[in-house]
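Hi support team,

I submitted a single chain yesterday and got back a structure, but I'm not sure I'm reading the token output correctly. Could someone confirm the output below corresponds to the sequence I sent? I've pasted both exactly as they appear in my results page.

Thanks,
R.
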Amino acid sequence: MKLKGLRWWVVSLVALAAVINYIDRQAFGALWPDIANELFPEMDKDGHKAIYGTISTIFILSYAGGQALFGKIFDWIGTRIGFALSIGVWSIATLLHAFAQGMLSFSIFRSILGIAEAGNWPGAAKANAEWFPTNERALAQGIFNSGAAIGGIVAYPVIGLLSYYFDWKAIFIVVAILGFLWLLPWLFVVKADPKSHPWLSDDEKKYILSGQRNQDIDDDGNYDEGYTPTTAQLFKHKESWGVIIASAAIDPIWWLFIVWIPLYLSEVFGMDVKQIAFSAWVPYVGAMIGAIFGGLLAKNRIKAGWSVDKTRKLTITLGIALMIPCFFLLKAPGTAINAVIIMAVLLFGFQVAIGNIQTLPSDLYSGKIVGTLSGFAGMAAKLGAAGLTALVTIITTGGNYTPAFLIGGALAIIALVAVWFLCPKIEPIKPKLKA
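Hi R., thanks for writing in. Yes, this is the structure output for that exact sequence:
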């Protein structure tokens, strides 16, 4: 049996994993007002925020460690089993949330969730490098990133709807089941990599593999899969640091919104759980559109003859240029409707930029080391996000989020500078010759 367009089935399943990933992680924020009132009834809003910020910071720190860990795991055991391990463990962790009794147990379960959910991103980067030629990678990454945005869109309404029928404990059990169900089609469809998958047609296999052999390392006229440095060698290239620093700067912006949107809407506009559930999804619509737009724009420009270097840099610049004015507009949005619309535009720009930043490891190196670099970049990104999350807890006391938005704008500029100056030419890197 041959399945036409198998690579698109694979990326669709990876995108669906991202949807489930975001439903699982967003459930905590959406349900936090109910959880806080039940478990910490003696505390005021600032006290609840401090606990929420602490648990969220622990989650992100665990996520940071999980990025580097799963980057290596995916390079070691492969995409198929790596994804099964990641989503299997995070679904168990989500289930355990139903049995949390306080800050300690929530912190432990969120930590396990963070480590396991982190596998989704280096896994997606590796799947992208394995299953797609260079000219389609930004689009494939955009499809995957749209899964994260769709997860943000559906998570809040789903949680809001479930809250009419179940308490917060039962809701964690329901969303955990989604991950276990995902394992069935994944293990059935993704039987092997493109080199040996029995369902992959000869034409599609040739198209995928020939599109990856884009580098002639030894100048003998034969193109191969690219340069595969050791981990130590990887860090000797400034381009690797460009990827890591750009990720560490831009990714915390996403976490600024996914962590704090529920509390921002609650504190600034007085929304309850159900009102948040049916408002907080709007920014993710912008993110979803931006993820697809950024991928299609990159594919279109490469097809039109632009170099990968020009395509990536100008697309990333466009995304960040859209983001920066939005941070200033959020200082005084006026109404909740204005605020979520501005956030939608901001996250549109974010996804245009981040989708192309996340393809840089596969633009620069062989697929055999992509998971490792993506993992280290992801770890740096999540350490930055953890630091910003902890800082936001302090600088937003009393409901003033302006300092957080100004920091977000500065981080966007840092990401742009890192790409332009540390990646002077985005193209496959050749090994450094010994003197």
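A quick pointer for reading it: The radius of gyration is 21 Å. Let us know if anything else looks off.

Best,
Support desk
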